[in-house]
Amino acid sequence: MRTVVIPLFGESPLLISEIVKQISPDRLILCHTWSKKGNANLNAQLLSSYLEKELVLDGNVQVKPLNCSEHPFSLGESFSSMLLKDNAELESTVKMEYHVLITQDTPLGYFFGLTSLSGSLINTSCYLGSTSIDISRSHPTDFQPNPNNQPIQSLPLFDDILQAKVWLQSHKGSKEIFNLALKWYSEDRSRFKVQESFQSRNLVELAASQNNEMQQSRVSNQIKNLLECKQNIRLIEHSKEGKQHYRITSIGRTVGWVMNLEDD
């Protein structure tokens, strides 16, 4: 069962329709740090009723007040405990997936809770969304001036990064091609911003410019290996432009950044 979890804070309710469109969940959990008796919980219940009708999720939108402080440790413990309890109640009858949406303003404790569950038996993933075009909060290479064009992106968890690194270590050929893709993006950093796609010939040409002659068939075979990774550690993916066009994923960019730090 696919469950989208929305910590209600700041702008996050504005992103619910978009994350539902992207994930197509079976149910929604709306959680917050306030108590069951407060006005915030009453508002959350009103939002729940609205979403059930608007998103055709009759009876499958739940509100879960955590009744805790926003201190990272307190909130992290309460949030992870809520997910563990929910999973225990349902896992015996159906396989569970939890997709958690956070924003730049979401209290840090929610990410602490997710981090504590990363690598556990609970299948969790994290997404980062924003409706803000605050000029002070983004680097120019990442800034999107259109308020209606703020993407929801997968945010890798620690265990995903570790799994991806282990996979690359055991697939040396794929690692070499992935490094070429990273260099292609680094040649023009704006390619990251617009999620520009590349083709195998782009990597062949880049390798040749570095005095490394490489057959296109070899590059294509290793790209195929990278595409066949498990979804949570898939470093590149097909682009909408066509079957022979590829682009780096959120975890691919993160793993590349970590690898560069380790090389330094």
For the structure shown, list the relevant keywords.
Arc Repressor Mutant, subunit A, alpha/beta, 10 helices, six-stranded mixed β-sheet, Rossmann fold
Short description:
With 264 residues, the chain is α/β, with parallel strands linked by helices. 46% of the residues lie in helices and 16% in strands.
Textual characterization of the structure:
The chain has 264 residues and is α/β, with parallel strands linked by helices. The protein has 2 domains: 2-154, 3-Layer(aba) Sandwich (Rossmann fold); 163-263, Orthogonal Bundle (Arc Repressor Mutant, subunit A). It has helices spanning 16-23, 39-54, 72-90, 108-117, 158-169, 172-187, 190-193, 200-209, 216-227, 250-263, and strands at residues 2-7, 27-32, 61-65, 97-102, 124-128, 153-155, 236-239, 242-248. A 6-stranded mixed sheet has the order 3-2-1-4-5-6, with helices on both faces. Helix 5 packs across helix 10 (250-263) and helix 6 crosses helix 8. The chain is elongated.
